[in-house]
Amino acid sequence: MSLQSLLNTGRLWRGANQRTDGQHTLSSGIQALDQLLLGGWPKAQVSELLYSGQGIGELRLLLPSLAALSQQSHTAWINPPFVPYPPALQDAGLALKHQLVVSPADHKQALWATEQTLKSGSCMAVIAWLEQQQEVASRDIRRLQLAAEQGQSQLWLMRPEQVAQQSSPSACRLVLTAISSHSIHVHCLKRRGSWAPPPISISLPDVSRSEQAHWFRATEQQCSGQLIQGPWQQRQSAH
Amino acid sequence: MSPTTPPVWLYLHFPHLQADQLSQQDDNAAVAVLDQHKRVIQVCQQAEAQGIQPGMPFTTALQLYPELQLQVQKPQYQQQLLIQLAETCYQYCAQIALAFEQGLLVEVASMWRLFTGRASHWQLLEQSLLEQKIRFHAAAGHTPVAAYTLAQAGIAMPLAATAELQQQLLQLPVAALPLTLRQQQKLTDVGIKQLGQMLAIPMADWKCRFNGEIALWLAQLTGDQPLAYQWFEPPACFTRHWHCLHEIQHTNGLLFPLQRILGELSQYLRQRQLATVSVELALEHREHPTTQVTLRLAQPEHLAGEFIQLARLRLQSLVLPEPVMVMIVKAAELVPQQQLPTDLFANTNSQALNAGQLISRLQSRLGQAQVLQLAACPDPRPENAYRLSAESAPEPTAARADHGARPCWLLPQPKPLPAAPWELKTAPERIVTGWWDNQPIQRDYFVAEDQQGQQCWVYRTPKNEWFIHGWFG
Fold first, then answer.
1. What ipTM score was computed for the predicted complex, to two decimals?
2. What residues does the UmuC domain cover (chain B) (predicted)?
3. Can you give the pLDDT at residue B2?
């Protein structure tokens, strides 16, 4: 049997075949990330974002995709660690009437709710924090993967950084680390269609320099860059 | 039919109404219903097959078949069952009266033209009643009481002509007439054996000789005196009463009868082109106050499958304080059905739900407070600028406030800033507001960064206390 016939029947495929046609990917709205993921988030698949802490830009990485997906269908936030704040979501272009915040009582219910929302086909985007109480098993991720395919929905699984060493059936895994207010360090552990590339840093919209804040510019010199430190009772901090 | 057609009455008699209903809803158990003197008055088919007959003392019945279920006759329950049966008949009859205890009085002559003849009308009516699996027999009559008297006597003549009915009526023995034993005795004492003999005596003599009751009954029979009754009007909401033969201890046991009732609800709604936004279940216990369960839907529904799915999820999380004796299912909030536009080709997902169905499903399993929708509020205080509610809020019409940077994550409560070095990244945004409802705030908001590079939203109060209020996720 020749190599060509194997290739033709699809039993053998080339690792270098990069699918950038947009049929199997969903543009993330950030050019550097699209390049990293060979066209964008894998469509109707589970993507894992691994990070520790909060406020490192984990949502800013998703906001452009969420804004695009939320125009037509619902976005489900399952067990978010804090309240997704509507004024900020609105500024990012998300349709507020399509945001659903689900807070299940325990791990089992959270998995059930995630699967239901994915399967329903009416939530194109689901973002889930499932690791409050116990770790998500590999077979659960596989199940969510199937549900996402069935409902043609996108699941972003937000997980702690510690699970990076474990294997996972997700289509794409990114480890996020903060660098500064306007860039984030992204290490791709796994992506569809190619080997994992070396880590890169991606620039994000800077929160402190948003357009709405233009009138602060004049006084910016006075305050920004200043260091403050507690304990606050004893010391006069900000001059 | 011309409007001058004399009315023809049909009396549908259900001699074993309660026994038949209880038996068929409990897997064809053998059921007998007792009167106040503990004598059997109704038997279901299964009990009848064991040789149990009306009039037996209950001890005899139990001797014959020890597994027999005994129930006391409940007139109120029978009335509820009659209303259900009347709803079934209402498809074919416009005028139905609930004038008698164990049967329905139906006026049929006015319907013959619509259903192309007497025979085909009766066939349809009979078919729909047979599906209810409650034994019945029917007799026609030119007056309500004549039809009742014939049916009560056990004569099934739904299609007979008036002359034939009259003939049959005249031959009825006194013992078969719906009169009290005393009245029957009095009539026998004076040598009257058949109804025909009674009708031969002039009315004035009846009034003279016997008390007025027999005279009144005769006048109603002949049609000289109209019978007082009220027409049945189908209720505006769906209600079903379900009486258990055995007390039900687990919610799983409720699911089976509930499925059937919800199927009936779906049929009820389809016939009327209606949908409902909530289904209420009342579970009555022996001692404990009634348990109320509401299945609330995010959007109007009429399909049985959707109700059953929700009921299953809701009942899973329900703990019964005591076994259930009676279940009442009610759907009161009815709205016109709306068919959502669907795409013939696009949807290939067999389990696809629309957003409303998804929200209902999540809410019934997780609880209403766990599935919330976001909305923005035009309030300058950051903690009041959003709302989480179980129902979708209308899009605020107010223009977007022109404010500084806002974080994606808001802490439900501001927390004191931990004592670590923070670098302020922006100039302060001062918010002084809230004077109108006694929750005034005066805060300077900054974007700050900690040593791990995490961006947060902090504020300073006039007392120079620092709080963290959000994260720039």
1. 0.85
2. 28-147
3. 47
